[in-house]
Each structure stands twice: as structure tokens, then as C-alpha cells.
Prior knowledge:
Layout: E1 3-9, H1 15-26, E2 32-36, H2 43-47, E3 56-59, E4 62-66, H3 69-76, H4 78-90, H5 98-103, H6 107-121, E5 127-131, H7 135-155, H8 163-174, H9 181-202, E6 207-214, H10 217-232, E7 237-245, H11 255-271, E8 276-281, H12 290-301, E9 316-321, E10 324-330, E11 339-344, E12 347-352, E13 355-360, E14 370-376, E15 379-384
Parallel strand pairs: 1-5, 1-6, 2-4, 2-5, 6-7, 7-8
Antiparallel strand pairs: 3-4, 9-10, 10-15, 11-12, 12-13, 14-15
Helix pairs in contact: 1-12, 4-9, 6-9, 7-9
Bound molecules: adenosine-5'-triphosphate and magnesium ion (MG).
Adenosine-5'-triphosphate (ATP) binds next to helix 1 and strand 7.
Amino acid sequence: MSRVLLYTGKGGVGKTSVAASTAVMLSKKYKTIVMSTDPAHSLSDSLNVNIGSEATKISDNLYAQEININDAIQTHWNDLKEYLTALFQYQGLDPISADEIAILPGFEEATYLLYINDYVKNNDYDIIVVDSAPTGEALRLLSFPEVMRWYMVKIFPISRTAAKIARPVMKTFSGIPMPNDKVFKNAETLYDDLGNIHEILQDPDITSIRLVTNVDQMSYNETKRAFTYLLLYGYPIDAVIANKIYPENTGDFFTGWRNSQEKILNDINSAFPEVKIFKSYLQDYELLGTEKLLRFAETMYEKNDPYSVFYRGKPVEFSRENGKTIVKLKLPFADKKNLRLYNRSGELVVEVENWKRIMYLPETMANLQPENAEFKNGYLYITLS
Ligand SMILES: Nc1ncnc2c1ncn2[C@@H]1O[C@H](COP(=O)(O)OP(=O)(O)OP(=O)(O)O)[C@@H](O)[C@H]1O
Ligand SMILES: [Mg+2]
């Protein structure tokens, strides 16, 4: 089974360098592809080779890809274009062109994710290393399948539970002109693929999300937030990489920095007790080209194999207690005063500051209301009744 290793973190902390070097190291043992989902691709710069929009062979077991959204649409999205054209016509809009598809919100995300889905489904690679965009955009990418499926159910003539059964009903009662069979099939496939990728990204045996951080207060704060939000969405984080630590021999000028890094490293250790923390030092060379990247990865991972799953935790659990349903969410850094909870038509909505998670409640819980919420040992216990 393939593994998906996704590296994210604040801008400039070293995501691309860590992802590329991890891929180089893994390619010595496994068939590996490193793919950039940051539209500002810099994998080519890091690996010091030209990388195409399709998987490009770099060495024996190493492939790299920087998806160009326009190329991807031209080669892979003709069928979808047909479906969108039908939908746009149905909405009374002009037919859509390939250029317009490219700028539709979410298309970039969908394309990246569908590539990952195909690679995992077809077992094309042992490992897919994802060099993702800075935290905010990465969160948008990860929440995309859930959000997109929600839209498809609400807006498009497709049903979450029984697309095939709903179809003739839709046609009879709503008078919606249905796209032709082939086009409809494509929409169904897209819907299923999004469901599949959602499962892939939430399965700790397949996907490991690794947060790259620098050892300063601002990066650390962002890492804490990312940790909470990723758990809120149910994504498996198994490691934090503390990058650009100043080595002992950096002289007097860096004494202050070394002291504050020591303190923040302690905080990092106590803040993420379950996940593996990798300490990665500032190197005295720029991390360019496969040779240097390999050297960098070997010092960072020491004897560990980055293929491993370093932590398997369940971020969301449902249980019953005294006839009530308890939803247990891992949320170590959330603050109760910033928390909002409500049931909206069978969906449990959890808002923390300006982030929101919508969880489809199982059928039997769809009418339950959040009655009480309690933080205990880094978990949020929501009682539904
Ligand atoms: N441990 C390190 N030692 C020395 N240089 C490093 C280290 N980590 C990263 N760098 C350098 O820092 C710069 C930024 O790294 P990189 O591009 O990997 O960050 P990024 O998080 O991907 O940035 P962006 O948010 O722009 O995508 C690069 O020049 C890289 O070589
Ligand atoms: Mg980068």
C-alpha cells in the first residue's frame, strides 16, 4: 500500500527542502514521487532539475511533479469540462471554456488531490511525498474533499447516499435537465474519488502529515494552531520537524538565539507529546541538489525511516455514557471561550476562532444537540443529547 507524506508549515520554514530531501532519501529504498501542491512551485529549484507538469523521472526510483493547472486540464479534464458545461447551461450561464475552468475556485485543489488519489489507487508509487503550500492553503487543500462533496450534494443534481436512485426522482420532480449519461457518470466518479481521497488523507496507515516549524515564537504559534485545526478536520499528524536549529558552534552573536531556541524546543516537546519530534539543524550550505538534500535528510532522520508511521492517534471518537453521546475531539490548544458548537440539520458544527468544522452526524445522532462541552487533558468532550 502506498504512503502519503505531507509536509506543511509556515512560509519559509523549510517545507520544500524537507519534502525534497525526504523523497531523495526514501528513493534509495522505495519508489518515490515528490509532488508540489504549492502553486509557487520550488521543487525544481530545490532538486536543481527541470520538473514537468506530469511525473518526471529524476533518478532510478525518484520522480517529481509540479502540476501546471492549465496543462492538467488540457490532458485530463475533457470529460469534466463537458459536465461543467452542462451544469453552467443548466444554471443559465454561458458554456465554460478550459481557460475558465482553470480559474474556478477549487479546481487547483481538486486536480492535486485527484492525482494523489490515482497514484494511491493504482499503487504507482510506494511513497507520495507532498510539498504543500503554507499552512492556511494546505488546510484549504485538505478540507477540500469534504467541502466539495457538500457542495455537490447541495447544489448539483447528485445525492450523497444514492446518486443512481436519486436521478430519476430528480428528473421527475424538479424538472432539472439532467446531463447526459456519460457526463453524469463523470460527476459520480468525481464525487466518489473525492470521498476516496478524503478517506486516504484521514487514514493514519496511509497518510502522515508532518508539520515543519522553525524554533522561534512565531513559527511555534502557527504550528500550534495548525496542529489544532488539522486535528479538528481529523487528519493524522505523526511528526513535527523543528528546523533551522542553531548548532553550538554558531558563536557569540547567536547566544541569545540559541538560548531562546532551547526554551522553545522544550515547549515543543511538551506541547506535542505523542508525535515524533525531529530536530534539524541549520546547515552551513544551501540545500540544493540531490546530494546535499540526501546529506540533510540523513542528519535529520538519524536512524529513523521516514516511511514509518510515527504516531497513530484517533482525533475524533464517538462514545455513549449514561444514555448520552459523547464526541471526543483532540484539541490541545483550543480555548473554550473561542468555541462555538451547534447542530445544523444533522451536522455538528464546531467553530474555533475563525475555523469551522462540519461533521456529518451518523443517522442515529442527527437530531442530537450539543448540551455541554468540557476540555480535559487536551481533549474536548462534547455531550450530545
Ligand atoms: N536546515 C537548514 N539549513 C540551511 N538552510 C536551510 C535549512 N532549511 C531550509 N533552508 C533554506 O531556507 C530556504 C527556504 O527553504 P524552503 O524553500 O525549503 O522553505 P519553504 O517552507 O518551502 O518555503 P515556502 O513557504 O516559500 O514554500 C532555502 O534557501 C533553503 O535552502
Ligand atoms: Mg516551499
